[in-house]
Amino acid sequence: MTFFGSEEIRFPVVSEEGQVDVVQFLQASRQVVKFIDCLGTTFKIVKSDVNGNIQKLQQKYNTDPEKFQNFEAMLEDEKVNNNTDFAKVGGLWLKRALQFVYVFLSNMVEEYKNGSPRESLQPHIKKAYDETLHKYHNFITQKMFTVVAITAPTWSSLMKILSRGNDVDDEQIIKDLEVYLDVMATNLDVLSNLYIKYELDSNKSV
Asked: Can you give the residue ranges of the Glycolipid transfer protein domain (predicted)?
């Protein structure tokens, strides 16, 4: 079984009410951290940021697990009571980081299906960063990320890691990845709409 072929790492199916289960979402997000590990030690900054935002959401959830089963419940609580900003800030930045990962992986899938995957993953990382996180970061962070991207593994080395030592070809890894990304996309769409609804997704840079 490939890394993305395991059901335990997938994001939850969005409910009929259009809600995302917080517990399952955070479990899937922790698996994304394991993927970031595959990109090398220089990505520890990204890993640390994602972990920190997962922890903020977990902390919010733990205050009332019965009440905070979905993201909207947490955002509504913070809007009404103004007691914490774990969901408002932690959830927003986790969403943005996951969007970066989503675009990066989608770029890989697209290039493979076009029949000519390059060994260098740097263009994919740069494109994903430019489309997602770049506008939220200050100049220093932007430059730092440029350096981090240079150290990304090659296509071949990453495919080897994602195969988990199994005798599978790139095609199988990409097929599993497509299934994974389909569900991830629906989760991110729900979160994006929520942060727009609660007027929390600004272009302010940090």
From this structure: 20-163
Per-residue pLDDT of the chain (206 residues; tens, 9 = 90+): 899 998 888 999 999 999 999 999 999 999 999 999 999 888 888 899 999 999 999 999 999 999 999 999 999 999 999 889 999 999 999 999 999 999 999 999 999 999 888 999 999 999 999 999 989 988 888 888 888 888 889 999 999 999 998 999 999 999 999 999 999 999 999 999 999 999 998 766 55
Per-residue DSSP letter, 14 = P
Which own/partner pairs from 36-44 qualify as long-range (CB within 8 Å, at least 24 positions apart)?
Answer: 36/101, 38/3, 38/153, 38/158, 38/161, 38/162, 39/152, 39/153, 39/158, 40/151, 40/152, 40/153, 42/147, 42/148, 42/151, 43/148, 43/151, 43/152
The dihedral through the CA atoms of 155, 156, 162, 168 has a sign that is: positive
pTM attached to this predicted model: 0.94
Domains of the chain: 20-194 (1.10.3520.10)
Give the sign of the dihedral formed by CA 168, CA 169, CA 175, CA 178.
positive
CA angle centred on 142, ends 152 and 97, rounded to 5°: 65
| Pair of tokens at residue 95 | 């969403």
